[in-house]
Amino acid sequence: MSINELQLSNELEPCAKNASTADLKQRAAKAFEAVCGYPATTFVQAPGRVNLIGEHTDYNDGFVMPCAIDYKAVVACAKRDDGIVRLISVDYDNVQDSFDVNADITPTDDKLWANYMRGVVHFLKEKGYQVGGADIAITGNVPLGAGLSSSASLEVVTGQAMKALYDLTVKQSEIALIGQASEHNFAGCLCGIMDQMISACGEKGHALLLDCRSLKTKAVHIPDGVSIMIVNSNVPHSLVDGAYNALRHQCEEVARLLGKKALRDATLTELNASSIEKGSDIYKRAHHVISENERTVACADALMAGDLQKVGEHMYASHQSMRHDFEITVPEIDFIVEILSDVIGTQGGVRMTGGGFGGCCVALMPTTMIEQAKQAIETHYEVNTGIKESIYICTAQDGAGLI
Ligand code: GLA
Predict the structure, then answer these.
(1) Which entry of 11, 275, 353, 364 is 20 to 30 Å from 237 by CA?
(2) Which of 6, 56, 353 for mutating ligand 1's site (highest number of atoms within 8 Å of CB)?
(3) CB under 8 Å to 305, separation ≥6 — which residues?
(4) Is residue 395 part of a domain?
(5) Does the beta carbon of 58 sit less than 6 angstroms from any atom of ligand 1?
(6) Three-class DSSP category at 158
(7) Residue 61 — left, alpha, or beta (φ > 0 → left; ψ -120 to 50 → alpha)?
(8) What range defines the domain where residue 143 resides?
C-alpha cells in the first residue's frame, strides 16, 4: 500500500472487480493492439493478496501467512528491438510512460503508477539480467488503496513479463525481492517482503507460511468448506507510507535496544526483563511483533490441523494486538471485526489485514456462514459509520505466471 496508490485511487476507478482472468486478458489484448497497432505475443498475471495472520512481522524477519487472491494485475506484452519500454495503463485511458532500458532508469514525477514498474526494470538490470525493450499494456482489478497489494501485483507482473519476454532465469522469489527494491527506491515505502513473495509464489487452495528471514515457504491447505471473506472498510486514509515507515523504524530501534538483529530474535521474557518501560510506545510495538510471530506459527499449525476454533482465537488475538499494541486500527475496522465476530463465534475468526489505518478485514469461516456474515455487515456497517463497505469472497490462488 502506498501514497501513490492512494492518489490514483482517489482519481480513477479500476476495471470491474468481478472481471475474470479471461476478461482481463481480453481487455489488455484489445488495448495493446489499439495502441501498438500489432497483437501482443505474451500474457502474464500477478495476484493481489490477503494476509490471514502475521502483520508487521515481515520487516522484523518474522512469519506471515498470506494467500494470493482472485484479484490480479494482467499484462499483454511483446518485445521491442529498439530498447524502449513503453507502459500503457489500460484502466486509465491508455495513458503511457516510456523509457530507454539502456539509459539510467529513474522515477518519474508525474506518472506515479509507472514508478513501480520502472523500478522493477531498473533492478532486474542491476542484478545483471539482460532485459530489452517491450510494449506492456497493463490492466487489473485489485482494489486500490485497500491493503490488498495492488502495488506488489504491479511490480511482480512487470518482473514476470520481462521474465517471459526475455527468457530470464530469475526465480520467483527474486522477482519478489526486485519488486520490494522497486517499492523502497522508486515509491518510497519501506515495505517488507510479504506482498511481493505471495504474489510471486502463491499456491492455489493454500495459504503460505512464510519465514521472512530465510524466505522459506510452507503451503498450508485451506480446508474444504472454509471461505475467505474480505470486507473493505473504504475508510479514506492518508500519509500511510509515512506512518508505516515510522513504525518500521520504531521496531528497528527496539530490536537494537534489546541487542537483537531483528525482533524475530527476541522473546517476551527478554522484552519484560529489559529496561524498556512497560506501556511505552516501543514496548507495545515490540510486544505486538513478538507475540504476533508466535501466533502466526501457531495459527498455521491450527489451520493445518483443520482446527478453525483455534485459528479464530489467534486471529482475534492478532486483531487486539494490532489495536492496542501496534495501534494501527481505526474505529470502522474495529467495528467490522465486532460485527463479524458476533456472527462467526468459535467457528472461525476475523481480524484487520494489511498495513493498517483503514483498509480491509479478513475473516475465515465455514462457507455455509458467508451469507449470514454478509447480511450482518450490510445491516450494520453503513448505518453506523456512514461509509458503504465492499465485500469480496475469495479463494486462494496461484501466484504470478503466464496466462
Ligand atoms: C504492507 C507491507 C507489507 C507488510 C504489511 C503489514 O502490506 O507492504 O510488507 O509489512 O503492510 O503486515
Answers:
(1) 364
(2) 56
(3) none
(4) no
(5) yes
(6) helix
(7) left
(8) 3-221
What is the number of domains present in the chain? 1
In a domain, residue 368? The reply is no
Q: Which residues are annotated as catalytic?
A: 195
CB of 359 sitting under 6 A from ligand 1: no
Cβ 179 under 6 angstroms from ligand 1: no
Q: Whose CA is nearest to atom 2 of ligand 1?
A: 191
213 Cα distance to chain centroid: 18
Q: Quote the ligand 1 centre to 354 CA distance (angstroms).
A: 6
Position of cell 506512518? 243
Q: Could you give phi then psi for residue 222, rounded to 5 degrees?
A: -90, 115
| Residue 369 is assigned to a structural domain of this protein | no
Ramachandran region, residue 188 (left: φ > 0; alpha: ψ -120 to 50; beta: rest)? left
Q: List the pLDDT tens digit at each of the 403 positions of the chain.
A: 343 343 333 333 445 677 899 999 999 999 999 999 999 999 999 999 999 999 999 999 999 999 999 999 999 999 999 999 999 999 999 999 999 999 999 999 988 899 999 999 999 999 999 999 999 999 999 988 888 999 999 999 999 999 999 999 999 999 999 999 999 999 999 999 999 999 999 999 999 999 999 999 999 999 999 999 999 999 976 556 788 999 999 999 999 999 999 999 999 999 999 999 999 999 999 999 999 999 999 999 999 999 999 999 999 999 999 999 999 999 999 999 999 999 999 999 999 999 999 999 999 999 999 999 999 999 999 999 999 999 999 999 999 999 9
- Compute the distance between CA of residue 328 and CA of residue 313 in angstroms, rounded to an integer: 20
Count CB neighbours of 364 within 10 A. 25
In a domain, 211, yes or no: yes
Report whether residue 1 contacts ligand 1, using a CB cutoff of 6 Å: yes
DSSP string, 100-136: ETTS-----SS-HHHHHHHHHHHHHHHTT----EEEE
Residue 396: partners with Cβ closer than 8 Å, 6 or more residues away: 67, 68, 69, 202, 203, 204, 205, 206, 207, 222, 228
Place of cell 449470514: 372
306 sits in which H/E element: none
